[in-house]
Amino acid sequence: MEASVSSQNNAASLAPVDDSDYGSDLDEATIDALFSPPVDDVEKPVILDDHGDGRKSVVRLARTRGSASQASTAASQADTSKRAREPSIEIEYDESNRRTFSPSPEDVAQQQRRRERSASLETDGPPDTRSPLLRFRTPPKKGLSVTDLVSPAWCELQYFYSLSRYGRVRRTPAMKAGSSVHKVLEEQVHTEVPVEVVTKEDRFGLRIWNVVQGLRTLRRTGMTRELEVWGVIEGETLNGIIDQVTTVCPDEEAEVKMLLEIETAAHNGIKKTKEKHLPPDQRTLGQYFGNNTFESQNSSTLESRNGGGWLGTLHSETEPAKKLYIVDVKTRQSKSLPAHGSQTRPTYYQLMLYHRLFSSLAANEVPAERVFERYQVDAKAQFSDSFIAQIGTLGVGFEDDGGAIDEWGGADAGMERGGDDLETLLTHNTNEKLWAFMISEFARTVPSSASVSTLLTAEFRSGSSGSLLGRRHFSHASPELDAYVQDELSWWRGERPAKGVQIEEAFKCGYCEFAEGCEWRASKVEEGVKKMRLRKDKGRKSEV
After folding, report:
1. Phi then psi for 325, rounded to 5 degrees?
2. Structural domain includes residue 543
3. Burial of 170 (0-12, 13-18, 19+ CB in 10 A)
4. Where is the composition biased (Polar residues) (predicted)?
5. What is the DSSP letter of 504?
6. Are the C-beta atoms of 493 and 28 separated by less than 8 Å?
């Protein structure tokens, strides 16, 4: 059963980015906290890797009636057709060569141990003075992701130690359980069909095409999952994978409360400045309830925005555009919800970054050339014939027994029939062209920035059963996000050293595999011990 959770804005409970209490006095209780075991109901947020470049080569189609079997049949037909086109080549191997192509489990385990041992030795040599960005996120290594920006919100030093020792964050049992829950949820919405890619341009084109399919699924069913997004923030290119975008408000009461608070703040601001308006991406209560009278009565404090996206609105004038809500799914071993503050801080920033990237793509504000440059993709290189042929024959995943139509409606809803996919890919046969097509799909789905709700939701599920535990709601706050990202990128760029946790959050050390060798922890303990000794010495002198 879902727990009753009230809407809360996490911004109020978060400490400012630079509000680090490193110089405060340490007493016996704080030092005890540094060495105390973890508390049962306190868990580090499970943040899954969202770089995207390590995902399987699959097309993700909308799961509708009959789509699974139809997609499977189409995949088999595409594979048969591919084999028929390819020449038959027989290669003879002797037993020694055959063994080299089939490593034993022992060999695989040994190679893994060797890689980990090699990675761990990096910390034994002279210190690497390069910035974390240069060391860990410069081509040909993975690009910067939302995970990279929000994971340090738990503890920067822990994330730095993980990258330094292993080159990545090692998958924990909690992360594996989280991946399993995410997979089950995704399979409720999408059908995955394997695709063979020939070039890296094919591989990136597949990522773009899956975004197109995700947007179509959203329009068709009112929900999509695992939607990849890209953007450029503070000069850095990054990507992320949104767990869920839906047209169903996760908590209407929470949204009304949020809108009321925003309008009250805007109204008070207008009284002072005579000019302040709501941000263009905010809905008013009148828009929420569809009440024109309410809107007209409050027109002095509100700002309406009737324009559409960069390609103009594709929705009718009489029917309001669908509202979209961004949801992030988190798994927990505990049956309780995390408290606001340090336990939800990474999730809060993660949701705001997803909102920023999704909205920027929808507004066509992301320079595609920057994205292609970062992933070292030739934007003008044509996709391989086999890639186009495979993708073009899989569009049947969008047809069902009842011939369902686009939930958005409109005269051009029929354009999404599967038979047109091949023609679409032949016309948009490069990443540059396919990106432009993806932007047009965004314009159909998100006609204006006001279509994306600023109500952000974290959905907590059991890591063992996947059952819903409850939700936490946050309100998007651009100034706070900007301040956090700027500060975090200053560490990534090597402009400042990594920070440890705040003294009040020393309980986190009980969950950290690097606690024993942590420089911050050692320095704080030493500092605290010295201060206690000084206080005791002063006490003895006063007694004399």
Report:
1. -125, 135
2. no
3. exposed
4. 1-12
5. G
6. no
CA angle 10, 275, 453 (to 5 degrees): 35
Q: Give yes or no for a contact between 60 and 398, defined as CB atoms under 8 angstroms apart.
A: no
Tokens found for residue 443: 């314009």
Helix orientation angle between 156-166 and 105-120, rounded to the nearest 10 degrees: 120
Asked if residue 278 belongs to a domain, the reply is yes
Give the orientation angle of helix 385-392 with respect to helix 67-85, to 10 degrees.
Answer: 150
Give the residue among 468, 442, 447 at the shortest CA–CA distance from 457. 468
**Total number of domains constituting the chain:** 1
CA distances from 343 to 43, 155, 202, 278, 351 (A): 7, 11, 39, 31, 14
User: What's the pTM value of the predicted model, to 2 decimals?
Assistant: 0.73
Of 543, 535, 513, the closest CA to residue 44 belongs to: 513
H or E stretch covering 460: strand 455-462
pLDDT per residue as tens, the chain (544 positions) = 443 333 334 433 333 333 333 334 445 554 455 545 455 566 777 776 767 666 788 988 887 544 434 443 444 454 444 444 443 333 333 333 333 334 455 555 555 544 444 444 345 568 889 999 999 999 999 999 999 999 999 999 999 999 999 888 878 777 788 888 888 998 899 889 999 999 999 999 999 999 999 999 999 999 999 999 999 999 999 999 999 999 999 999 989 888 888 888 877 766 554 444 555 555 554 554 444 433 333 332 223 333 333 333 344 444 567 899 999 999 998 888 988 888 899 999 999 999 999 999 999 999 999 999 999 999 999 999 999 999 988 864 444 444 445 566 554 444 445 458 999 999 999 999 999 999 999 999 999 888 999 999 999 999 889 999 999 999 999 999 999 999 999 999 999 999 998 888 888 888 789 988 898 888 877 776 777 777 777 766 665 5
Rounded-to-integer distance, Cα 310 and Cα 410, Å = 18
Q: Which domain holds residue 225?
A: 10-83+137-512
CA distance 71 to 485: 41
**φ, ψ (nearest 5 deg) of residue 386:** -65, -35
Domain membership of residue 520 (yes or no) is no
Q: Tell which residue, 100, 173, 33, has the closest CA to residue 515.
A: 33
Beta bridge partners of 521: none
Whether 402 is in a domain gets the answer: yes
DSSP at 324: B
